[in-house]
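Quarterly update, task 2.4: pyridoxal-5'-phosphate-bound model.
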Amino acid sequence: MKDLSRSYTNGSEQPSTKQEFLNVPSPATQPSSDKLSQRELFEIADRVLPGSGLGSYSLADDIRLIYTHGEGSRMWDVDGNEYIDYVGGAGALILGHSHPSVVKAAQTQFERGAHMFGSLNDVAIQLAERLVEDIPCAERIAYATTGSEATAYAMRLARAFTGRNKILKFEGAYHGNHDYAIVSTFPKEPGSYPQGTADSYGQPDATVSTMLVCPYNDLNKLREIVAEHHSDVAAIFAEPVQRIIPAQPGFLQEIRQICDEYDILFILDEVVTGFRLGYGGAQQWFDVKPDLSTHGKVVGGGGPLSCVAGRADVISLSDPKLKGQQGYTYFNGTLHGNPVAAAATMAMLDELGKPGVYERMNGFADDLCKETQKLLDQHNIPAIAEHTGSLWQILFMDKTPCNQADVLASDQVAMRKLDTLLMKQGQYILPGVRRFVSTVHTARDLEETLRGLDIACREFNRF
Ligand SMILES: Cc1ncc(COP(=O)(O)O)c(C=O)c1O
């Protein structure tokens, strides 16, 4: 077993807990919903929420739990049980739960004023300046509220700028919840390209027919589709790491090249990877410059804020002074530029800008995957532990997936079975879904995670 005594926390002289920093009682003593039992809360949820859910995840009865609070890398359920969190608010909580400086910034701004709709606020301007400095492709940014909203606006801007209707996306890519985004995102089998399939009832056929779909990492197919449809294509939209599938070397550069050849806009969806793979996001990691990139999660600081970044000539089509003129692209939202979320984001970026933060976080993911792989091999479990930066997952396949067909061909039943057993060992993950490491995962987390994995592997082989 390797030396687990190494600390993954940033070792600064800052107060070690939110409580020390804010001088407030620890979560265990704070009032919470613990007056109601888990059973009582489920009874209410079953009555008032569809499928007792907050979205598309529906967990089996033995692993569905109700959580009350989180701190650092840990979360607690209503009964007081503790979990190591590898969901991290779907990637938004890169500094873990309730990081002292993020909490302080949001709290301070809430007291100064929670929102000033219709006019600028000082914090949103300062954050915008910082995002333009720090996001490699950004000459301007335009605010939105969620990642989905950012991708929808980016598509609208591309259509307005080029005067073309279609957007090309990759099979299996997730760009949010709107009608244009959920096309061929959850296919049950590889599709008949470039035709996309609707992922939800209620999506208009007309919306689906404006999307073209191509297998990820397949440059031949991409060139073929673009050669045939380029006069209709406004943008190629790509995730730089599509779920757990990394872009193969040269893939994103080739998209850039194709876009330049045909005057198509290249939009990189950095909702997950922005300020996550490294401070410069995937644009820096893969050394590629898109025309636009979409940002949320870390941009938002865990609050309601996102943005489209990129070329000034494209983003400026949303300038309200252009109303009524050719190309004017409508952007509007109650919480756009929300100062509380902007203050939280600034605090988060301050932390992320400190030396060594990404090296430690990505190093943790590397150690975690290497040690996980050793245990999987020892237990003869035919799976691989893979990561790109701090994004990681255990996959029941024998090589890094290249596209959605590889993912579909993997043993997803086995993957969910192991993930479910891991949840029972106190790890908060979503079965079958990519996980996140945060900057505050510790050597103790690593040790406990591996101990839990060892037990889960034994259980896996027993049943
Ligand atoms: C790559 C990507 N784009 C867009 C989105 C949508 O973001 P949101 O859930 O904030 O609407 C997500 C969400 O997970 C995402 O992973």
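Highlight for this quarter: The pocket of pyridoxal-5'-phosphate is lined by residues 90, 146-148, 151, 174-177, 239, 269, 271-272, 296 (CB under 6 Å).
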